[in-house]
Amino acid sequence: MMDQPEFAGALLDPERPPPTDLTTWNGSDPATRLAIYRNNVMVSLLGVLADTFPVTRELVGEAFFRAMGQCFVRAQPPQSPVMAEYGAGFADFIAAFAPARTLPYLPDVARLEWLRLTALHAADAEPMPAERLATLLADQPDLGAWHVRLHPAFAVLRSDHAAVSIWAAHQGVGSLAEIDPSAGESAWVTRPELEVDVIPVDTATGELAARLLAGDSLAAAVGAVHEAGLNLDLSAALAGLIRARALISLDPPGETAA
Fold first, then answer.
1. Could you tell me the sign of the dihedral formed by the alpha carbons of 180, 181, 187, 191, in that order?
2. pTM of the model
3. Is 155 in a helix, a strand, or coil?
4. How far from the centroid of its chain's Cα atoms is residue 244's Cα?
5. pLDDT, tens digit, 9 for 90 and up, residues 47-101
6. By C-alpha distance, which of 39, 38, 31, 30 is closest to 8?
7. Taking the CB of residue 204, how many other CB atoms lie within 10 A of it?
8. Is residue 157 classed as helix, strand or coil in its secondary structure?
9. Which SS3 state, helix, strand or coil, does residue 156 take?
10. Distance CA 89, CA 72 (A)
């Protein structure tokens, strides 16, 4: 029986010979057939990456993206037959990929594109009506110990670079020529209905949402933002979550949302 790890290694590495027990149905050269199959697999996986990270590809050009993608595929081959799940580690790979270091914002652009994909495939959820939040604020003297449950599609990007504006410029929003790549930015990513929304937010608002996603109570999240020396407008942040239809519920201490 053919050794599967040996075959997988030969499939991704053109320098490795085919397994010794590899045969073909028509007697053709196994090395030639494997090379054809290897090329087809690589083309397919590069296509998946190109579809998931189109702005990343535009920023570096087709040839560079292809070379970088080949390195990624060999370093991190798919672990699932579901191709929509492939590419989770691409942003971190780019961050460690020496030839890409002249574009320090590139990993976060890739992270944003991955967050958009995961939001697209996340579960649906009904947002909390604004009236319900108003009632809670009126009836509960202290919501600090409560936990905010956010939409399953909700995520936060926090970048030391202008990754959000760079991505947006490739969607026709703003001009690349007017962007300072070194200006840090944050954004919410969510999908209230069918379309994925990328919502730029200030650093404090992004940090608050990240702390809430991590499971902090409302008071703990606010405290963490203030300890970071950031100026937070909590009312505006909560109103923004309501507008984005990202706030699903406010849960009292000890209560687990269904």
1. positive
2. 0.86
3. strand
4. 18
5. 999 999 999 999 999 999 999 999 999 999 998 888 888 999 999 999 999 999 9
6. 38
7. 21
8. strand
9. strand
10. 9
